[in-house]
Amino acid sequence: MADPRLKAAFAERRFVTAPGIFDMISARIADAMGFACLYVTGFGTVASHLGLADAGIATYSDMVARVGTMARGCRTPVIADADTGYGGLLNVRHTVMGYEAAGVSGIQLEDQEMPKKCGHTPGRRVIPAEEMALKVRVAAEARRDPDFLIVARTDARTTLGLEEAIRRGRIYAEAGADIIFVESPESEAEMQAIGRAIDRPLLANMVEGGRTPILPAARLQALGYAMAIYPAIGFLAAAAALERAYAHLKEAGDSTAIGESYGFARMTALMGFPEVWEFERRWAEAAATGDKA
């Protein structure tokens, strides 16, 4: 079942900030922070799971189990990237049903041609708007829970211009999308134009080093946005920390740099070892005393 808190947040016009998660370490850390939503990033999940570029290589089968593990391991509502729905209309229906059953509260679908490319990278091409509108309609019909949210993304801005991207956003809203995601506007003025033109909760994609300016939450809300995702923040930070730690080990021949990082005791707590130890202690005592209760 989808978590109704996320849909309620949009209804109450509370701005939603969603950090990107890509594995269970990032998911557990973000889940403890008190965010209203977490975002399963396609780029980060494909990179961490398969070690590949987010270029349409990962399949539904590659992603759904990974997405489900993260969603079930979090108390926070989760929205997950599902690329193009992994095919045509029948694939979209199957994907929506599978992601919803996996425990996410929302799914993101995009209007790129297959194989898709990562947003903010060159060479992205889009399918006709009417074809994507059918995907949105199928997605809305396929969901079982009305609290399950459909995020419709258009990548038209980069190749077809802002006006076409806005037109598509309106079409996808009319087709039944709950949240509209116009990918990679290139200025604050463009973001303002999107906010004025589309009457639906809008998602801003804050990618460090991407095409869109990084703006504070208050400014995004003033421009008409209801939500911001930060898909890369986690895996960029993790990669930088790993690079520093491994470089120190190679150069110095020891792991003293780890003292500056998360700490083994904190990691064992994060992964639930205290509960495991308590379980083992309790049942060891029961075995020793012959307690059958």
From TrEMBL:
Protein name: Carboxyvinyl-carboxyphosphonate phosphorylmutase
Keyword Kinase in annotation: no
Keywords, in A-Z order: Membrane, Transmembrane, Transmembrane helix
Membrane spanning residue stretches: 222-242
Keyword Transmembrane helix set for record: yes
GO molecular function, one term: oxo-acid-lyase activity
Database matches in Gene3D superfamilies: Phosphoenolpyruvate-binding domains
Highest taxon, organism lineage: Bacteria
InterPro entries reported in the protein's UniProt record: ICL/PEPM, Pyrv/PenolPyrv_kinase-like_dom, Pyrv_kinase-like_dom_sf
